[in-house]
Design brief:
With 180 residues, this protein is an alpha/beta fold. The protein is built from five helices and five strands.
């Protein structure tokens, strides 16, 4: 299975100025015993942007073959970055699932994310501007998604880290789990 994902990634990134001219046309995971309507792309070996590009293409493929797709964003934060071209438009995503840029798609931000509210609002505004005042797909945010706040970012800076607040927000979330 890793070979199929790597091949999709290599094809999608081989021509970065023309990413969406050669779409995935058939699900490479369709085989006996596999769920033809499910896919998971994860890992660090292709980076945030690579996963975003591959997932966007699979979202498109599932919409074509099934009419609608639900795509979960299960981890990451505002420090992750995806840069891609969708229908000739430049789409930049940090926290938004790539499904929000796809007609007939639903992107869900799940509890595995760290959500920075102000950054999300800026990203949504940027998406609205990119797609002529609308977001092509739908967005659902799990009410249990942990927040990364400016206080977490300040703590991160004071500790000499990236300043994105990921470490302190993760630690805060994990510490609270003992009491739930």
């Amino acid at each position: 299975m890793a070979n199929e994902i790597l091949a999709a990634y290599q094809r999608a990134t081989l021509y970065p100025d023309n990413i969406y001219t050669q779409h995935i046309t058939a699900n490479p995971f369709e085989r006996p015993g596999a769920r033809p309507n499910s896919l998971y792309v994860g890992g660090t070996w292709m980076g945030d942007e690579g996963k975003g590009v591959v997932i966007a293409d699979f979202n498109r493929m599932f919409v074509v073959s099934h009419g609608r797709v639900v795509s979960l964003r299960t981890n990451g934060s505002a420090n992750a970055g995806h840069h891609m071209f969708i229908d000739g438009k430049e789409f930049l995503s940090n926290q938004l699932p790539t499904a929000v840029a796809q007609e007939n798609a639903v992107g869900i931000i799940t509890r595995g994310m760290l959500l920075h509210p102000a950054d999300l609002i800026m990203e949504m505004d940027r998406t609205f501007r990119t797609f002529d005042g609308r977001m092509p797909g739908d967005l659902i945010i799990d009410e249990r998604t942990p927040l990364c706040l400016d206080t977490h970012r300040a703590m991160d800076i004071s500790e000499g880290s990236t300043g994105r607040g990921v470490g302190p927000a993760s630690a805060d979330f994990m510490a609270r789990q003992e009491y739930l």
